Amino acid sequence: MVSSSRNLIIAAIVIVALIAIPQTMSSYITYVVALAMLYAILAASFDLMAGYTGPLTFCPAAFYGLGAYASALLTLNLRMSFWLAFPISVVGVFIFCVIIGYPALKLRGHYFAVTTFFLGHFIYLVLLNSRGLTNGPLGLGGIKPPDDMFGISFASMNANYYLILFFCVVIVSFLMVLVKSGIGRYLIAIRENEDLAEAIGINTTFYKVLAFAISGGLAGMAGSLFAHFFRLLHPSTFTWMTSEMVVIMALVGGSGTIIGPVIGAGVITFILEFMRFAPEWRFIIWSALLIVILVIEPKGLMGITRRITRRLRGGQ
Amino acid sequence: MRDILVVKNATKQFGGLTAVKDVSFSVQEGMRLAIIGPNGAGKTTMFNMITGEYKPTLGKIEFFGEEIQGLKPHSVAKKGIGRTFQLVRIFDELTVLDNVLMGILAQKLRFKPTEEQIYEADKIIKTTNLQKYRDILGKNLTVSAKKRVGLATALALKPKMLLLDEVMAGLTHVEIEEVLQLLRKINSEMGITLVIVEHVMKAVMELCEKIVVISFGEKIAEGSPQEITQNRKVIDVYLGESKHA
Predict the structure, then answer these.
(1) pLDDT digit string, tens, across residues A116-156
(2) What is the pLDDT of residues B114-125, one digit of tens each?
(3) Residue B73 belongs to a domain
(4) What's this model's pTM, rounded to 2 decimal places?
(5) Does residue B58 sit within a domain?
């Protein structure tokens, strides 16, 4: 109980700091933090699937892209309000994930991972080549910021930042409650031993598809927020490189913890931004850093934190 | 006693290979039945058809008069058939208590385990003699303790029938005695029907009232332990073979 109230205090401090950023920092920092929060949503939703349920997915960026394009096209072509397009695109990606996930999740282990890898690339190619719809490699511009709501205008970057912050907090909290709930228990059972989980009466197919679809739907939500924040979409944002980045953020943060991948997203986004001065060294340095972290502690930053707190308490 | 499980002409083919051919037998409520046979005879395939891992190519499987062939394993489990696996399967990263609780919670989705459910899990842990391992992670247990955790998790489903796949393999004599005692207790006190696949003949003879012998996928004999030990066919394919070995 002590540690949970301490964690709440830490979370409150972090949220307050995030609220203060647009007021105190430059617009560049605000922009980077907003991106980091979008990545945090992606990494946390990825963790629901890979960290809790087990199967490794390599396509979070594809669902991110689908959500972004769906929401942008609904507002541009159908003149829909953001507040309608946003839930529609999230539900749309969710349903898409159910349709894809049901057959794909019959595969296990590497086979499923490879399938998602190609699915991700396939969706990227569709976004790139459907020129009539997505404007292909020229990018999709002219996306409007979210419409005014409750008398708040979302035209400014700062307002958009707060919108992303709000959904980031809501989604991460939702996932943390979800994994502690009965559904989370079932997912852990599936991760630990799928055959046994099935044999004791858990409908493993249903819960795997559910986790995959929730994970994808939340990535789509991040995509929709991204589209109306950045206001210009290009297929190259949604390549496998982005998926890989999400996977690495989750691993570095510590998968199977939800909050670990969120921290990982923050840390990695900043490492990459700080190293902008040396573009050619950026990926080399941080790849080396990644290997070092994973060799020292396979459970990522969360594992390291746990070790330190245990040592400070004098135990083990 | 009425029939709890009826297997009618079950056949399972994998491509051109017939693993189980036209096997029929029935299990009466509250009885202890063993399926024996040489390695590769199709015992585990038979098990997997009952638990829903495999759908029989032909034939019917009835549980309390209801056809269950072709149901998914989780639905079969909900009907009241618990099982353990030949290669022991437990949740490695969970404590023994959480393993057993998972069995209880799998029956009905709820946010958190209740006090009663934890009490119930502790009762099962006590029955299976796992008290001293209660808070130890599954992966850190000995083989014999892991097997008992597998059994405890299956018991947590409150099954009407338990299928035990080689629950005694690899155990010492003393451990086998313990498991036998435990199985008798489960059978008589909890009223759970037992169907076991087993290679430890001594245990089978001591525990079971009825034995079904399978060889090369076909049923060659059925009867009490005395009948089976005197059956010429069985001695030829099974016991005879092991005498020469």
Answers:
(1) 999 999 999 999 888 888 888 888 888 888 777 787 777 78
(2) 899 999 999 999
(3) yes
(4) 0.89
(5) yes
* Chain A residue with Cα closest to B107: A201
d(CA A262, CA B221): 62
8 Å CB contact of B90 and A196: yes
Total domains in chain B come to 1
The CATH number given to whatever domain includes residue B185 is: 3.40.50.300
Residue B42: what pLDDT? 87
Question: How far away is chain A from the Cα of B83, in angstroms, using its nearest Cα?
Answer: 7
Segment A175-201 shows an average pLDDT of 93
Question: Cβ contact (<8 Å) for A182 and B110?
Answer: yes
**Domain spans in chain A, listed from the N-terminal domain onward:** 32-238
Substitution target in A53, A200, A204 with the highest count of B β-carbons within 10 Å is: A200
Radius of gyration for the alpha carbons in chain A, expressed in angstroms and rounded: 19
| DSSP secondary structure, B4-18, as one string | EEEEEEEEEEETTEE
Query: Would you call A183 an interface residue with chain B, using a CB distance cutoff of 8 Å?
Result: yes
pLDDT tens, residue by residue, A59-68: 899 999 999 9
